[in-house]
């Protein structure tokens, strides 16, 4: 299997996990509504819904970048001379690599710190915090990998973004 296919499967897998997290958030919210109506005595449902929503957000970041669906401010790029556009886009991608790599490092560090200190939620669920933080860290690592992938693709002159319309096409 090629590196390109492996990365695409990685992004697709994270999107599938994000979809599963979104469905989980929906189910937990419905359970919360039923619990208020019928007094089942389920505790911590609001916290679990929040964890699932945060997992959805972070896990979807790499796939969203791959599909070119992140908000991109291209006003400056469009107005720059053609020769400068590629350089500016490469610089932006390299800045994205630096920022997302730092974010991924600190997200993974947070998971490790929460695990080693046995940090638990302050809510009524009293869950170990490293468990929901794993999804955040995985999404951050995936986003850093996606930015590295995009930067390398841009530097070698290949297209990173899937066919998502003209605003997502890379600048020649």
Short summary:
Helix content is 72%, strand content 0%. The protein has helices spanning 3-38, 45-66, 75-79, 82-116, 130-155.
Describe this protein with a few key phrases.
172 residues, single chain, elongated, 5 helices, mainly alpha, 72% helix, disordered C terminus
Describe this protein's structure.
The protein has 172 residues and is mainly α. The chain contains five helices and no strands. Helix 1 (3-38) runs antiparallel to helix 2 (45-66), helix 1 (3-38) runs antiparallel to helix 5 and helix 2 packs parallel to helix 5. Mean pLDDT is 87; it is low at 164-172.
Any chance you could write out the topology, listing elements then pairs?
Layout: H1 3-38, H2 45-66, H3 75-79, H4 82-116, H5 130-155
Write the H/E string, N to C: HHHHH
Overall shape: it is elongated
Radius of gyration: 19 Å
Q: Averaging pLDDT over every residue, what do you get?
A: 87
- What is the tally of beta strands? 0
- Largest sheet, strands/sense/barrel: none
What level of helicity do the residues show?
over 70%
Specify the structural class. Answer: mainly alpha
Stretches where pLDDT is under 50 for at least 5 consecutive residues are 164-172
Tell me which oligomeric state these chains represent: single chain
In terms of DSSP E residues, the strand content is: under 5%
């Amino acid at each position: 299997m090629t590196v390109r296919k492996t990365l695409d499967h990685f992004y697709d897998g994270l999107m599938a996990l994000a979809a599963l997290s979104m469905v989980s958030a929906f189910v937990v919210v419905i359970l919360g509504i039923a619990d208020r109506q019928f007094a089942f005595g389920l505790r911590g449902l609001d916290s679990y819904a929040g964890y699932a929503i945060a997992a959805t957000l972070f896990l979807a970041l790499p796939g969203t970048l791959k599909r070119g669906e992140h908000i991109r401010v291209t006003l400056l790029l469009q107005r720059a001379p053609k020769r400068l556009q590629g350089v500016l886009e490469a610089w932006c991608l390299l800045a994205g690599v630096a920022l997302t790599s730092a974010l991924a490092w600190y997200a993974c560090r947070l998971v490790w710190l929460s695990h080693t200190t046995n940090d638990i939620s302050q809510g009524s669920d009293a869950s170990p915090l490293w468990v929901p933080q794993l999804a955040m860290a995985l999404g951050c690592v995936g986003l850093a990998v996606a930015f590295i992938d995009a930067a390398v693709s841009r530097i070698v002159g290949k297209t990173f973004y899937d066919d998502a319309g003209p605003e997502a096409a890379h600048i020649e």
